[in-house]
Predict the structure.
Amino acid sequence: MKEQILKNSQNALELEKLYRANKSQFKRDFNELYPKNLQTELGEFWNQRLNYETESISWGSKDEIKFIMICILLAGLIAKFPALFNISEDFFFPRNIGFIIFPFLTAFFVWKNEMSNASKGILISISVLLAVYINFLPNSNSSDTLILACLHLPFILWGMLGYAFTGNSLHPKLQKLAFLRFNGDVAVLSVLLGIAGMLMTGMTLGLFSLIGISIEKFYFEYIAVFGLPAIPLFATLINKNNPQLVDKVSPIIAKLFSPLVLLMLIAYLSAILISGKDPYNDREFLLTFNLLLIGVMALIFFSVAEHFHQKGRNWTTWILFFLAIATILVNGIALSAIIFRISEWGFTPNRTAVLGGNILILGHLMWVTALLFQSVNRKTTLQKVGIAIVQYLPIYVVWAFIVVFLFPLMFGFE
């Protein structure tokens, strides 16, 4: 973005567009350029605007707060559907847990980005289609295709959130990269708010128990049910209006955990050889292996999103490169294990879903690893690595569509 800032250093409108496309990166790049290259009247204006630090936390405008409060109320009411309409919780929550959070986050960004009526209509139509479809699938606790559909549906809702977040941006690639970073930042804030909520819950229940009043049933049925969806919604509102809160925390987390996870992964792979355990004949071990793969891959993507503004070779890039190689090794083991199981016992919905997912992840990891190799050799930047990451994400959403809509038909709702 530095080149674009320099190119438009005298154009207030273009600078504003760059700022709105990715506020965090714009601020970092501007502050790096300002001392030597932007000592102009317009540059001074932007310096004051970007670096003025308020002593208080901004909760956003009154309209934003009202919007979020309405979303929390509606999300809580959806979570209360089983009690209000005498629906089995075992039936309702596996199918609808994603609808308690994602549509409201999506609605917030649709509203903030002033998206067109056509875009709103597309998002609403897909949401209604998904809700109707997932709730009318045959109810069978032993149906693997139903379980897979319930697990993959939130990925579709997450993709819709990404579409709304990007909005009408003139720099969609950078905005998609900002969305990746947004996920990490909101996750950090949500954890902090969640810890505060648990402390508040413990204090409240403890204080009432001291005077002999038991409020557990009332508290969890009428307060916590609204408090849980409030956490990511408030985290989004806070992050949107106070990006500086986690601007330094998230990179620290990424820098701290990347080398630790790399060491853990090396130790874990070594321990597998010693223990004699393998994912080829142990189904639960294969499941754990795949969860490990997804978690480490998410850390790589999050770390790239946090450091994509850096140029040149540094130890963080090397760590990410070696972590990506180790993750490819994990993926290769998992992929060979699922191919072995299919060759021995044939295709099932679960094996097919894991096979497809592992192939997609392997392709993605190899692309990212190749770019990380170029980055450590100073032939590209982490920004291009980040763009490669976000360009591939829609493929996962397409795969989720296939699992949700086609697998039940392909395998006869098995």
Notes: The mean pLDDT is 85. Residues 181 and 305 are 5 Å apart (CA to CA). The chain has three domains: 2-51, 62-244, 248-410.
